[in-house]
Amino acid sequence: MVQVGDQAPDFTLPSSNRDQMTLSEVLKERIAVLAFYHFAFTDGCGSMLVQLQEEIDEFHRLGAEVYGISADSHFAQWWWAHERELDYPLLGDLDRKTFAPYGVELPELAGYSRIAQRAIFVVGRDGKIAYADVGQEHYDQPEALPALEAVRRLAEAG
Fold first, then answer.
1. CA separation for the pair 72, 57 (Å, rounded)
2. Is residue 1 assigned to a domain?
3. Measured by CB atoms within 10 angstroms of the end CB, which terminus of the chain is less buried, N or C?
4. Count of domains forming the chain
5. Is 2 a domain residue?
6. Domain range for residue 25?
């Protein structure tokens, strides 16, 4: 699992906006907030993403972009973002290529294998993990406000 201070693994994934998101490209201009979750259309994961949405203006003001990541297709992500009124992209990782490098891969949950544990990472423009909150159990839910404070510290540090 990546720890605070580690280099964030780079990746490219399709987004609910129907474009490709590459982490290293985002970091050229913005801080990245990565919110991993089990699946679209689930209540616990939905409440985590809604918490992030409630703070989206402040994340943006501080120079950060928020991304949700799960094993759903970008089509399902688009519908869920629309249903939840999320103003940030959700990324579809059908191949599950980001979960293990970030240390959030659950071997099994409810009969599904290799899905993401709920987690929030803040990645600074230098590509290093500045904040990490990874649930220890499948029902653990990271909160948006500590991630926002980590973004604030990065923004203030310049």
1. 26
2. no
3. C
4. 1
5. no
6. 12-157
User: Alpha helix (H) ranges present in the chain?
Assistant: 23-26, 43-54, 56-61, 74-84, 99-102, 144-157
Please report the pLDDT score of residue 9 as a whole number: 97
Q: What is the CATH number of the domain that holds 28?
A: 3.40.30.10
Nearest to 1 by CA among 108, 151, 106, 157: 106
Asked whether residue 3 is domain-assigned, the answer is no
- Return all residues near 5 (Cβ < 8 A) that are at least 6 apart: 128, 129
CA 57 to chain centre: 16
Confidence at residue 139, expressed as pLDDT on a 0 to 100 scale: 57
Residue type at 91 in one-letter notation: L
Apex 5 CA angle, 2 and 9, nearest 5: 45
Assigned domain for 25 exists: yes
Closest CA relative to residue 9, chosen from 135, 98, 69, 96: 98
